[in-house]
Amino acid sequence: MGAGPAGLTYVGRLAQAYDDLAEMDRRAAELPHRARYLRLINDYGRRSLDAQREWLDAV
Fold first, then answer.
1. Helix, strand or coil for residue 32?
2. Is residue 29 part of a domain?
3. Which of 1, 26, 57, 59 could form a disulfide with 10 if both were Cys (CB 3.0 to 4.6 A apart)?
4. CA dist 55 to 14, 33, 49, Å?
5. Angle (deg, nearest 10), helices 10-28 and 35-58
6. In degrees, to the nearest 5, what angle opens at C-alpha 59 toward C-alphas 55 and 4?
7. How many beta carbons lie within 10 A of that of residue 28, not counting itself?
8. Range of the domain at 38
9. What is the pLDDT of residues 3-40, one digit of tens each?
10. How many domains does the chain have?
11. How many helices (H) and strands (E) does the chain have?
12. From its phi and psi, is residue 7 left (phi > 0), alpha (psi between -120 and 50) or beta?
């Protein structure tokens, strides 16, 4: 896979996106009135990343 603008491979960018989601999950606790919805959106993002990773594994 080609390197992106920051020199990361697609797999590296996926790993960074997973790290970003983990950080967003931790920070959701700081906003208790929005935490439920933030976690729902983060779950959607994680499932999207999972699908991309599975696709990469298949090709």
1. coil
2. yes
3. 1
4. 12, 35, 10
5. 160
6. 75
7. 18
8. 25-59
9. 555 566 888 999 999 999 999 999 998 999 999 999 99
10. 1
11. 2, 0
12. left
Number of residues that this document lists for the chain:
59
Q: Is residue 37 part of a domain?
A: yes
**pLDDT exceeds cutoff 90 at 1:** no
Q: Give the whole-angstrom CA distance, residue 57 versus residue 31.
A: 36
Can you give the pLDDT at residue 45? 96
42 occurs within a structural domain: yes
- Given this model, what pLDDT does residue 59 score? 86
Ramachandran angles phi, psi of 25, nearest 5°? -65, -45
- Distance from C-alpha of 54 to C-alpha of 22, rounded to nearest angstrom: 19
Q: Which two tokens stand for residue 53?
A: 């990773």
Residue that wins the pLDDT comparison between 51 and 4: 51
